Amino acid sequence: MEIVQQLQIEPGMSINSLVKGMGHCGFGARRLSQAMNIYEEMLKGDFTKFLTVSGAMVPAGMREIISGLIRGRHVDVLVVTGANLVHDIIESFGCHCLGSAESDDAALREEGKSRIYDVFLRDEDFAAFEELMQRILPDTEKVLSGRELLRTLGSGIDDPRSILRSACDMNVPVFCPALPDSMIGLQAWMHSQTKKLTVDAFADVKEIVDICYACQRSGILIVGGGTPKNFALQSMLLSPRSFDLAIQLTTDTPENGGLSGATLSEAVSWGKISEKARHVTVYGDATITLPLLVAGALQGLEKDGS
Amino acid sequence: MEIVQQLQIEPGMSINSLVKGMGHCGFGARRLSQAMNIYEEMLKGDFTKFLTVSGAMVPAGMREIISGLIRGRHVDVLVVTGANLVHDIIESFGCHCLGSAESDDAALREEGKSRIYDVFLRDEDFAAFEELMQRILPDTEKVLSGRELLRTLGSGIDDPRSILRSACDMNVPVFCPALPDSMIGLQAWMHSQTKKLTVDAFADVKEIVDICYACQRSGILIVGGGTPKNFALQSMLLSPRSFDLAIQLTTDTPENGGLSGATLSEAVSWGKISEKARHVTVYGDATITLPLLVAGALQGLEKDGS
Amino acid sequence: MEIVQQLQIEPGMSINSLVKGMGHCGFGARRLSQAMNIYEEMLKGDFTKFLTVSGAMVPAGMREIISGLIRGRHVDVLVVTGANLVHDIIESFGCHCLGSAESDDAALREEGKSRIYDVFLRDEDFAAFEELMQRILPDTEKVLSGRELLRTLGSGIDDPRSILRSACDMNVPVFCPALPDSMIGLQAWMHSQTKKLTVDAFADVKEIVDICYACQRSGILIVGGGTPKNFALQSMLLSPRSFDLAIQLTTDTPENGGLSGATLSEAVSWGKISEKARHVTVYGDATITLPLLVAGALQGLEKDGS
Amino acid sequence: MEIVQQLQIEPGMSINSLVKGMGHCGFGARRLSQAMNIYEEMLKGDFTKFLTVSGAMVPAGMREIISGLIRGRHVDVLVVTGANLVHDIIESFGCHCLGSAESDDAALREEGKSRIYDVFLRDEDFAAFEELMQRILPDTEKVLSGRELLRTLGSGIDDPRSILRSACDMNVPVFCPALPDSMIGLQAWMHSQTKKLTVDAFADVKEIVDICYACQRSGILIVGGGTPKNFALQSMLLSPRSFDLAIQLTTDTPENGGLSGATLSEAVSWGKISEKARHVTVYGDATITLPLLVAGALQGLEKDGS
To answer: In order along chain A (306 residues), what is the average pLDDT of each group of 10 residues?
Structure first.
């Protein structure tokens, strides 16, 4: 039986070494280390790599980790919430501000600031977002899929660090299963009152199922649950395959029965994840665990000369 | 300054009395009591009543609380996840089974059971679901809104206790902002390969914004966060109004910055909830807090002769 | 296989019926219902009944539920945190106030109010507490156990609704394994500077182990984890027995490896709980789940004519 | 207003740089970065440094981080749970094993293994622990404080990486406010049946209050809440001072009103922490956040040539 090896802190140690050392510890430390090992395997191997992103990751500063992964060819399919895309677009010309979670929300309203926990958005950035959206939303007779719409938006964003632009440049399909549930949805509706714009709600289903059908081995990194998690997992149901590697970073726990906290083992009973798959869930705030996972795995890849 | 009054347990006391008594306590007890008071006010008054439902509430046994509220005219707008609708449809002819959360998921897979925490679904019920769906999904040239599609589905379900059927009977619009992210989405796509079916992804935005525009005073009961929460709240952004009463039942806490755990106060900074609104968040499993809230509030209404 | 029966809300239904109905549901509802069944069995049967209480239950209004259980002969051994005893003593002459969790803590400090989430304590009540303590703390050559000290304190409290007084009146031993970690500890130390007072830190171990040795069948209701949970469970280790029934109400989940969220199954591996025991953990705020559990179980006992 | 700077992952970046970069992000990332800044200030400056440790940190592999901090003169007062001390003693001659959290606990019981989430302890290590304890527990007429007892135990442990031994070597007082609530308590009671051993439950109160009185500026790192948190904080109440710097690593959140999740701001209302103090709570598993905090802060100290 393997024994717990007490974690060593050494001067100048790398993130990769620290997280590797956690693999001989218990609790969350071990899970994070397992996640890094699985992620290294996923990035090195011949896997179709899915990344799903939920939670306000872009407002919280995780945007360039995601676009960096895309540009580094570490993402083949991105499934994301509309809100993260809205904030990605805003970052391409504007900014998010560091605020306080204990603010007076009525006062913020007066000042024209909208709060996301301890991050603020200014009304002027929303106004500029609307203007940009009305400019880059397409005017076309063709019925589009959500993915096609997002690709068009990506090509209209002039910022190489943008998630949408990076995905467009690298030919990575972006799916947003709850597109109407975002400011993109509100803008698309306003746009469609004077222009031609129709998005077929179910067209994306076909596109992602086709990808699932085509892929041999596949891996998934799930950041934060939500509709992106389910949409990616359920797409495997219509294919003869299932995910071979899976990592989940979440703050939800299984006990409440919700999907965001559901174990990856549960997904095995559905056939979404292979019963032979390596999989692990890291419980905790993804603004801490995602940077550790990515920085550690990339250091690991380099060491191996990949 | 009001003082804590130690909670009294009395023989034969009603749910309403117990929860009323919690109003003089601290922590979650006080919040639950405030929620019941706000809900009573909402149900008694002239409010447009929104209900949003996320989390696997139907598999967990909360289906008839929801359809009961609809038939009791306590819901004017329902926003819900696709998964809950799938399970509502399955309950109309099949069932969910009581299982164990500590099951062997690979074995369940073999047995044809899919697990949702401690509830199982049998493959035969999914097969019957598919058959029913292919029968009741419309075949029409008309481009539909999601709400129209769901109304059609509701009219095809032969079960008065069904959420979709109840909403159809009572003329309550049902919105599902992530419709493709569910088995309804998968079925709709399969259906559309041989039949005519197009749902406009953004048509629902117009419909719900129109409702928000039209309503005078409004209240919202949010069960479980997710896209239903955001979709309902953001719809107020395009109207001159905001919610006057708001209750949230959630297992998420604010610290991680995600929307499902965001305070209702945060929504005040966005203008989604009025700064004068009465609002409260009850932290905890909605399979416990929702029945208490509803049973307590309905007992309260009766007492008042409403 | 048993199926999920959708929960019914009926006018005037009792707490016992509601919670009974939850037994055919999933998630937290089912666990709460199982807990009520186990608690009814414990209260009806010939079990030595342990109750452990952690978390600020007395400031939050749960004091008379606890003292009521003691006076109703539903508790044979109480293990509790020092803080709850301090607040029990304060309630015997003073009060706790309903405040807001979003208060300005520096301002509260100025006003002489100490905050426990949304409950306040006034400096004058602490002053009266100190005065009372200096009066009722014993002055004796005898080396006392913690239990003996708490009995002496209980006999000095002139309030039948007090936990300590009720335990004294009903001859229920009270253990507080972290006695120095409370204002009682601070007061005892001050007292001992001018009077004779020595409490043997380990004497309680003998006393509770003797109880564990003597009992035939035993059950435990654990409210909130902490040292009371562990102290009661570990006491079984030195006896040939283990708990036959166990209920835990906690907000902690197992994933972080801490004792407060540890599953009761984990305690089986230690031999603290019998492998044949019926046991269940209810996740959630005990200010909600404890009143439900107790009110429901007492209604159940009455129905049975017990 | 400061803006969110999207976090950069760079090849070979240090832990210190990564966490520094998190300071311009939102949510948990920002809190972790603030914690590292406060900890660097604490370690550099002339502060009396308190460390409190709760949760099964030693079984999970954090033992040498703690003893390393002690030997590096970064701890002046240690307050810790009995369980962590028991496991520290066991590690001095035995080991903890890496197991699975999904084990069959009745089978583990048969095999002589006790489980702490995903870590196992073997019966033979407990047996050796008992033997060692009976050997090193003192036999003395003198009434001891808990601190004195723990110092004696520390001097009897032949392992420089031990927390207790390191504290003994470095003259760091160790307080365990719930000493009876551990295997040390059980062993001490057994020992006292044949030998002379009396520990005065309240003697530690005097010792730690004296330290609080004597210190000028003070800082506290709270790992995991529990009695260690409260005992250290309450000790300031009897002194004219309060903590000037405070960091808390916890998985509990404030909403349930328990002390382990209580905000540090709440402690300001009590006068335990100064209203001018810099303080921050990092929510999450301390087996991840503690190594990051310590490794990052120590790298920061080195860079500064401290």
So the answer is: 96 94 98 98 97 98 98 98 98 98 96 98 97 97 97 98 98 97 95 95 96 96 96 93 97 91 96 97 98 97 75
What six digits make up the tokens of B199?
């749902």
Residue D272: active-site member: yes
Judge contact between A269 and D270, C-beta under 8 A. Answer: no
Map tokens 């301390």 to a residue.
D286
* Model pLDDT for residues B243-263, shown as the tens digit of each residue: 999 999 999 999 999 888 999
What order do you get walking across the sheet with A217-223 strand by strand?
A174-175, A77-80, A47-53, A217-223, A243-250, A273-283
Expressed in angstroms, the distance from the first to the final Cα of chain D is: 32
Give whole-number Cα distances, C44 to B284, C40, C65, in Å.
30, 6, 18
Out of D108, D202, D251, closest to residue C188 by CB = D202
CB-facing half-sphere around the CA of A282: CA atoms within 13 A: 35
Give me the sign of the Cα torsion angle C128, C134, C135, C136: positive
Please report, as a single letter, which amino acid is at residue D296. Answer: G
Round the average pLDDT of chain C to a whole number and report it: 96
State the residue for tokens 């992106």. A228
Compute the distance between CA of residue C38 and CA of residue D226 in angstroms, rounded to an integer.
28
Tell me, what amino acid is at A266?
E
What residues of B are in contact with residue A288 (Cβ under 8 Å)?
none
- HEC assignment per residue over D123-160: HHHHHHHHHHHHHHCCCCCCEECHHHHHHHHHHCCCCC
For chain B, where are the alpha helices, taking DSSP H only?
15-22, 27-44, 63-71, 82-91, 105-111, 123-136, 146-155, 163-169, 183-192, 203-214, 226-235, 264-270, 286-303
Contact assignment for A275 to B206 by CB distance below 8 Å: no
Chain D residues with CB under 8 Å of C197 CB are 202
**DSSP state, residue A255:** G
Q: CB contact, 8 Å: D101 with chain B?
A: no
What is the per-residue pLDDT across D266-302, written as a single tens digit (0 to 9) for each? 999 999 999 999 999 999 999 999 999 999 999 999 8
Helix (H, G, I), strand (E, B) or coil at B181: coil
Of D161, B227, D224, B38, the closest CA to residue C252 belongs to: D224
- The pair of structure tokens assigned to B15 is 């749910």
- Name the β-bridge partners of D112: none
With a cut of 60, say whether residue D306 has pLDDT above it: no
Cβ–Cβ pairs < 8 A, chains B and C:
201
Q: Tell me, what's the pLDDT at C305?
A: 65
B263 reaches C (C-beta below 8 A)? no
Residue of B nearest to C15 (CA): B15
* Cβ-based contacts of A257 with chain C (< 8 Å): 26-28
Long-range contacts of range D139-144, CB-CB < 8 Å, 24 or more positions apart? D139/D195, D139/D196, D139/D197, D140/D196, D140/D197, D141/D196, D143/C198, D143/D198, D143/D199, D143/D200, D143/D203, D144/D197, D144/D198, D144/D199, D144/D200, D144/D203
Residues 6+ apart with CB under 8 A from A287: A57, A60, A61, A62, B257, D22, D25, D26, D27, D28, D29, D30
Give the nearest chain C residue to A101 (CA atoms). Answer: C102
- Note the pLDDT tens digit of each residue in D231-270: 999 999 988 999 999 999 999 999 999 888 999 999 999 9
Query: CB within 8 A of A151, min separation 6: which ones?
Result: A167, A168, A173, A174
